[in-house]
Amino acid sequence: QLQLVESGGGLLQPGGSLRLSCAASGRTFGNYHMGWFRQAPGKEREFVAAITRSAGRTYYADSVKGRFTISRDNTKNTVYLQVNSLKPEDTAVYYCAARGGVFGGGYYSPSSYSYWGQGTQVTVSS
């Protein structure tokens, strides 16, 4: 099993920034493509960003493109999500997730990920 633990969430004002981290353990982190998703109250879980196992390619939801940056450090078994220019609509629980195999399509679908963290809350409010 691959265990994932997110951290770094908090309460911020609009326009603020923070960095979310997701630490992996239990299996070889570098074998997995990673994704960040978020879920707001009453809404479905939605794709935020993804990164391939070698960090060669990154993908973003249109709603966060230009504001969020996904990265990973395979030597530290950690994936990051730098979030800038936060908006109230970014308020959600943020989850990291892992998937193996060929990256391919479906990286934006929660069902294509095998492992999930417990989530970290990000609240954007003035």
Write a concise keyword list for the protein shown above.
about 130 residues; mainly beta; seven-stranded mixed sheet; four-stranded antiparallel sheet; about 0% helix
Task: Explain what the structure shows.
- Strands 2, 4, 5, 6, 9, 10 and 11 form a seven-stranded mixed sheet that branches.
- A hairpin with a 6-residue loop joins strand 5 and strand 6.
- This protein has no helices and eleven strands.
- Helix content is 0%, strand content 47%.
Give me the secondary-structure topology:
Blueprint (H helix, E strand, L loop, with lengths): L2 E5 L2 E3 L5 E8 L7 E7 L6 E6 L6 E3 L7 E6 L4 E6 L8 E8 L15 E2 L3 E5 L2
Parallel strand pairs: 2-11
Antiparallel strand pairs: 1-3, 3-8, 4-5, 4-9, 5-6, 7-8, 9-10, 9-11
Q: First CA to last CA: what distance?
A: 40 Å
Shape: globular
Total beta strands: 11
The helix count comes to 0
Beta strand %: over 45%
The class by helix and strand makeup works out as mainly beta
Main β sheet profile: 7 strands, mixed
Order of helices and strands: EEEEEEEEEEE
Oligomer: single chain
Task: Detail the poorly predicted runs.
Answer: none
Radius of gyration: 13 Å
